[in-house]
Amino acid sequence: MTDQSRIDIRKVTKLYGGVRAVNEVDLTIDGGAYCCMIGPSGCGKTTLLRMIAGHEIPSSGAIAIGGEDVTALRTGDRGTALMFQNYALFPHLSLTDNVAFSLRVRGQGADQRRAAARAMLERVQLRHLADRVPSELSGGQQQRVALARALITNPKVLLLDEPLSALDEFLRLRMRVELKRLQSDLGITFVHVTHTQPEAIALADQVVVMDHGLIEQAASPRQVYGRPHSPYVARFMGGQNVLAGKIEKVTGAVAVIAAPDGTRYDLIDASGLVAGAPVKFSVRRDRIALSDAATAARNAAHGKIVNIEYQGTFVKVSLDTGRGEEFIVYMDDDEYLAAPKEVGQVVYATWKPELNHFLRGTNDSAGTPHE
Ligand code: ATP
User: How many whole angstroms from 64 Cα to the centroid of ligand 1?
Assistant: First the structure.
């Protein structure tokens, strides 16, 4: 299925009157990949999804699936299926007839389409409820019916618009596992729009981070989370502190950054940088040591604790370093309990220089909604 279900999006733009919902987007989604699109409200992710599905036509640009240009094809002719956010089930039809519906539209006989629907219900573990109507199901079960209904046409690409948002936290985590399992069993491409960073990171082979109609970064979850492209991606995906300074000197591939308060930082991968350039870089919140006394003058920050939040597996300690953005440290809970901190206390943070990650992209926004 790999090449047949690859998606190539080339210079796709969608205009709604004066609004550029999607702006000259280029993206390749490998066949058989699980792709998650994420970004603040209004960034264009649903519009992009709906253009892949054929529910919206691009204002310009082209979309190909499996190497075939589908830009002008009708929704039913491009090998995609879309699972709607609200499931859109028919309330008066049994699960079997809900799932068989699109086969009926395609003119398939009753016995054949019902047998196919039952087989698909089996796949989503609902065969035993095949004669019920949707109102007799839980939210998670309704979601599985919607999945079965989308998959019945054997699509090459399944498009999911916030498929888990109507579920409670517990069910969401369970359905997340089921979605991933289903995708790897079927071997087709899933494109899933979400608002939730941990969901994107847990599910995706490829995370597409959008902002204002543009793709900021499209890469593996490890890259997007651990090696963000820009200050925006670092802030939006979370887990990083964004710091600023000026390049003081460059020696080979190593640069020294000076922050406005005089602290120096070593940047190991500084290729292409020149002395005097302003830079932003990030440091992972979970790789920072905190102590009550200053231990190092470089690759360090200090400030007053403004908030402490216990998160179960770690403790989130927020510092006011006087540089505007809060500086956050995730402390291992055992380590924290061995030396608890207090709000108002001044603490010193240090980390290894190789953790300083240069943010090459220039988008410095905080990920505000684009209304
Ligand atoms: P959300 O997470 O809130 O669903 P989104 O990232 O999916 O947001 P889109 O729904 O793709 O965003 O919308 C992108 C932009 O296009 C927004 O500014 C939105 O108001 C605008 N837009 C979307 N659909 C239409 C439409 N049918 N007519 C006019 N403007 C639209």
Answer: 23
